[in-house]
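## Example record

The block below lists the input lines for one assembly entry, exactly as stored, with component labels intact.
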Amino acid sequence: MTGFCQPHRIIMALVALALIGWSATTLRWDWVPDYAGLAALGLWRTIWLLVLSAALGLMLAIPLGLAQAAGPWWLAAPARGFCTVIRGTPLLLQLWLLYYGLGSLFPSIPWIRNSDLWPLLRHAWPYGLLTLTLSFAGYEGEVLRGAFRGVPKGQLEAARAMGMPRLTLLRRIWLPQALHRALPTLGGETVLQLKATPLVATITVVDIYAVASRVRQDTFITYEPLLLLAVIYMAITGLIVLLFRWLEGRIPSRVA
Amino acid sequence: MPDPRDARETVTDMPGQAAPARDEAIRVEGLRKSFGRLEVLKGVSLTAREGDVVAVIGGSGSGKSTMLRCINFLEHPSAGRIVIGGETVAMKSDGSPADRRQIERIRQSLGMVFQQFNLWTHRTILENLIEVPVHVLGVPRAEAVARAEALLARVGLAEKAQSYPAFLSGGQQQRAAIARALCMAPRAMLFDEPTSALDPELVGEVLAVIRDLAAEGRTMVLVTHEMKFAREVASHVIYLHNGVIEEEGPPDALFGNPQSDRLKQFLKSVG
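Predicted structure tokens for the full assembly:
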């Protein structure tokens, strides 16, 4: 504990306590109980949008990165094209193109209206999830391209020299090492992804950001909902940072 | 299979007489290799029978590492023939292996030790040793672990089984890498300058392990800069210069009475 109780930490903690005390006594929080249920729902939506889009996006990013790092040109070129388009256009534009463009086109196509997917496609969230997933895949595909290339040749040669088949080599040696190298970047990108999620509020998905907007419209209280919203995003960011720190610490490699 | 050690002793005990023919482990015929317009190997041949220790010496750029790497196809030969245990490696016209499965099988029978150790940094030493036996060869985990632990004990690293490579010294890493190659129960070992990346005080411990392997009659091809060591353990020495074999023969003849001017000069320059 002595390690934790250092002067600068104690001062920061006192400042935080003072801020909390000040905002609790001078600001208005009477609206909170009315919106607690909705906020919980919104928070849940924000979190699963983040987790699902990051997980699915990463799964897409692996072949995108691999194709660019080591694939034949007819795989590398489309992968590079995809990453360039995704990274070259605003996320909001992608979201609106998919939702207002594709989403409004679908109802006019009979076989889509009659398909089993239609109940899903009538909602807004699949478009939000898809856009966020593709965006994450585009950025992380680029990150993993570098990470795959960055794994020292000797690590792969050792596996090849022992007769390891290519897929096993990818699964057991190349991918784990590339992911480990990319972890610090991926952590930062996941934090960015969290802060991209409020965009789904523009296509009627009620996430935590949309709940805060609703509070402001209903009650004409400006600062309190936004302050609380900021604290919530910071708390989630803190959790992401801790998670990635833990992941990085699991393999104590001093890569030379 | 006869114990290769016996075969080796037969040879040394009865010089003059025809030794009983031991099986060929590695044969390289007319090996050529070019990188672009640079021809690094200009027709090199060598044979290592079971129990042979073939040392390959030569200056930097002489092609000795490239030759070793062609044996297990880490480099694709431009021309020539590689025969491992009597089996000719099928090559396409550009020198790349024609049959991936065959290459994988042959590589599994050749334990390679690299200059830079190349232990997998994301796995512990024990995991490094059992990786291929368990995940490629399908050896039961308990069996692989038992063998790995025995080999680690043999190279003096029993207490490092759970450490990650980054926490070992260069000498320890190289000994672990040798144990990893041995874990595959290879037919022959290929050493690519195994002590060149080590601090001088760590060279001895690695050479001791290799000496130990030579003494038990293991077949190996050893590319090295350690002349004294080559003279001590090798049964046959090859001096490579500019991609051709300038001189070869038993170590005492080669080191004690070099014929070519180039080899004389080389031996003088390396002290």
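The mean pLDDT of chain B is 90. Chain B touches chain A through 31 residues (CB under 8 Å).
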